[in-house]
């Protein structure tokens, strides 16, 4: 029986939620969590945001990806939007009530989630995101939500390494949404042709300052001497 009251039927939410709980990762079909119009709107808004090339992750991991920042989550600080109106409008779109409600139920949570960090990724040929753990950027990250914005590319597979089963390889379609726990290692393999683009945001029940402890190299040298 299908009870279609929101973005997804109750049946679909239950199915996706069970898969996320069991496997740590789930792929949501296109045209469900985001409409085509919403994807177009995100594309329009992101064109106003400056882009930077990132070659090093928060935990010293190795990347080669172009990033547009929407919401930052630096250690010791509360999450905060950057890059003005365009970012605020992207966050507003992500936080539409029905989408937040559908995601919360897929996460299996009884309480509200907040978006702690949000960014756009552009990956032309040669780009990759090296293997890393999202929870190393913020220990309160619980789930990452990855919205696929372009699929005209080769390579660029999203690979998850669950600790207790074999790796999972994803090639999401345009508009599909990949949700994965921030506690599994993962990577994006090198893009060989075309351009891979996605919107990525990280969800948590904790809304306060980022509790990541940044290793203070100078302090360690002082205490060791
Ligand atoms: Fe990641």
UniProtKB/TrEMBL annotation:
Stored Gene3D superfamilies: q2cbj1_9rhob like domain (2.60.120.620)
PROSITE patterns, A to Z: FE2OG_OXY (PS51471)
Assigned keywords, A-Z: Iron, Metal-binding, Oxidoreductase
Record bears the keyword Protease: no
GO molecular function terms attached to this record: metal ion binding; oxidoreductase activity
Domain of life, source organism: Bacteria
Domain Fe2OG dioxygenase: 114-205
Name of the molecule in the record: Fe2OG dioxygenase domain-containing protein
Family membership noted in the UniProt record: Belongs to the iron/ascorbate-dependent oxidoreductase family.
UniProt-listed Pfam families: 2OG-FeII_Oxy_3
């Amino acid at each position: 029986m299908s009870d279609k009251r929101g973005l997804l039927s109750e049946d679909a939410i239950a199915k996706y939620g069970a898969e996320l709980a069991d496997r740590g990762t789930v792929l949501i079909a296109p045209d469900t969590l985001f409409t085509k119009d919403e994807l177009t709107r995100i594309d329009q808004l992101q064109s106003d945001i400056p882009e930077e090339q990132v070659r090093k992750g928060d935990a010293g991991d190795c990347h080669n990806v172009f990033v547009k920042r929407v919401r930052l989550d630096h250690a010791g600080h509360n999450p905060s939007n950057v890059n003005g109106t365009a970012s605020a409008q992207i966050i507003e779109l992500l936080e539409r009530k029905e989408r937040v409600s559908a995601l919360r139920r897929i996460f299996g949570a009884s309480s509200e989630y907040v978006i702690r960090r949000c960014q756009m990724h552009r990956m032309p040929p040669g780009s990759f995101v090296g293997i890393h753990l999202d929870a190393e950027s913020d220990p309160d990250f619980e789930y990452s939500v990855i919205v696929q914005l372009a699929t005209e590319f080769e390579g660029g597979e999203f690979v998850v390494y669950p600790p207790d089963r074999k790796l999972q390889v994803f090639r999401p379609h345009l508009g599909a949404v990949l949700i994965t726990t921030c506690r599994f290692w993962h990577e994006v393999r090198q893009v060989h042709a075309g351009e891979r683009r996605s919107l990525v945001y990280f969800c948590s029940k904790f809304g306060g300052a980022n509790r990541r402890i940044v290793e203070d190299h100078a302090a360690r040298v002082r205490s060791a001497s």
